Amino acid sequence: MIVVEDLHKHFGGFHAVDGASLEIRAGSITGLIGPNGAGKTTLFNVIAGRLPPTSGRVMMAGQDVTGLPPHELFHRGLLRTFQIAHEFGSMTVRENLMMVPAAQSGETLWNCWFRRGAVAAEERKLREKADEVLDFLTITHLADEKASNISGGQKKLLELGRTMMVDAKIVFLDEVGAGVNRTLLNTIGDAIVRLNKERGYTFCVIEHDMDFIARLCDPVIVMAEGKVLAEGSADHIMENEAVIEAYLGTGLKNKAKVGA
């Protein structure tokens, strides 16, 4: 689905992504982990078109999409969420969902004046779709609530719901569990698994909660200092000496030396 080849992103002399190469297989829930400053979010931003790469290449479904802007990638089915949810606070939760699909007929003044019936029919379909998404995510009770009034975890669910309003092929989730209580995190995890199994969504997930990663993700890719450090199952990753060193600054070998 996504192949990243020798990707670099430099900010002056700082190499945020430094020759990263990886593959996100179609139909997978791939975890992306690493210490703070490892380059994970920058990698997401380059893949999703928010930042141009310094060098390297991003392929999607066999096509070169390097440097394409986010709106073009959106139309190809590549979507992402953010560490801090970006909702339209003055709109209801349902309205936040309904505004996602592009090229709606009601966006033009001509249609609003002379094709009111078509605009109204399309809006009814969008409302039905939004209500289906709300039901899937078990947040129907929030449909008419202002998005600014809901909790941080519910905003993360809302962001996930937005991806369901279009034909998403791959979704990049950036710290979906940040600031979310365990109950809501389990709800988010259940929704991700269902979307993957029932609707064929491919996910790549940045997350620091290793229990969440272990439950959802296979494979898990580890980044450190802008490079890919390791890849494998969650169990394999958590036993990897280089990963322990990167996260904790000390691994089994160093502990053995201290003990000796």
TrEMBL record:
Keywords: ATP-binding, Nucleotide-binding, Transport. GO terms for molecular function: ATP binding. Residues 2-250 form the ABC transporter domain. PROSITE patterns: ABC_TRANSPORTER_1 (PS00211), ABC_TRANSPORTER_2 (PS50893). SMART domains: AAA. Gene3D superfamilies: P-loop containing nucleotide triphosphate hydrolases. InterPro entries: AAA+_ATPase, ABC_AA/LPS_Transport, ABC_transporter-like_ATP-bd, ABC_transporter-like_CS, BCA_ABC_TP_C, P-loop_NTPase. Pfam families: ABC_tran (PF00005), BCA_ABC_TP_C (PF12399). This is ABC transporter ATP-binding protein. It comes from Acidimangrovimonas pyrenivorans.
